[in-house]
Amino acid sequence: MRLLIFHNPDAGHEDLPRHRVLEQLQRARHEVVWVEKGSVELGAALAEPFDAVVVAGGDGSVASVGRELAARGIPIAILPSGTANNIASIVGATSENLLQLLERGKTIPFDLGTLESSLASRRFLEGIGLGAFAEAAAILAAHTEGPFAPDGREAELARDRRVLGECVRSTPGYECRLVLDDAEVIGTWLLVEVTNAGVIGPNLRLSGDAVPYDGLLDVVTVDVAEREALLAFVHAHQLQVAAVPPLTVQRARRVKLGVPAHRPFHVDGETLESAEPIDLHIGIEPGALRFFAE
Fold this sequence. Notes:
Elements: E1 2-7, H1 18-27, E2 31-36, H2 42-46, E3 52-57, H3 59-69, E4 76-80, H4 86-91, H5 98-104, E5 107-116, E6 121-124, E7 127-131, H6 132-142, H7 153-170, E8 174-180, E9 183-195, E10 199-200, E11 204-205, E12 217-223, H8 227-238, E13 248-252, E14 255-259, E15 265-267, E16 270-272, E17 278-292
Parallel strand pairs: 1-2, 1-3, 3-4
Antiparallel strand pairs: 5-6, 5-17, 7-9, 7-15, 8-9, 8-14, 9-12, 10-11, 12-13, 14-17, 15-16
């Protein structure tokens, strides 16, 4: 196969063994074009004809490539080198099985979420949310030095879970309006997450039976009265203990989420904020991507 490898050298905490990866792929008779993030414009690099694209990076890099390849039919393989590697975990990609995935040739469809709003319009792979997780993401984005700069992947995941736990304790409830397809839901929420695959942030699995190719969004809500249950769930993740999330999960093809003014919300790993209340119109593009998978 003719492969484009898109590598983000800033992802994660360890250097990718480029020469070893190239040697293994070339020995397997793959033609390889290696592109470093920032060396060329991503859209231009992906405009060339390739049989598949390998993303050597984290979830942000996978999302960037996915947005460019939407509905083009070019399959994506992941060589995970980020911190959380949520998408890689969903499709069963590891740092050791790239060759096996390519040789087997099994791919699965993967939906893309869509966002339309007055502040931003884009596609997403993981989720959009308001409340405790978005507050934690905003804190982490604003503090990248000192105690907020961990040494190593596990330390970074532990830090992210710790900050999330602190935000679950302190975040007030947000009164906001949700419309799931045609059904209106009004509540005071500690957390609202509209996810594609049920996993966000530091390997936090909010919806245990989410399917990333069912053409549906998993809408996860936590009422303020459920704060202690959510804290226990986050604490279990901090201890790396398997736990069933105490969360309400509903499914829809279209979601409208009202976001209060001056409150952060996230789109995948990016945090945004509006000076005015805004409505987020969230949809789904079924099977817009294909990933090599176990």
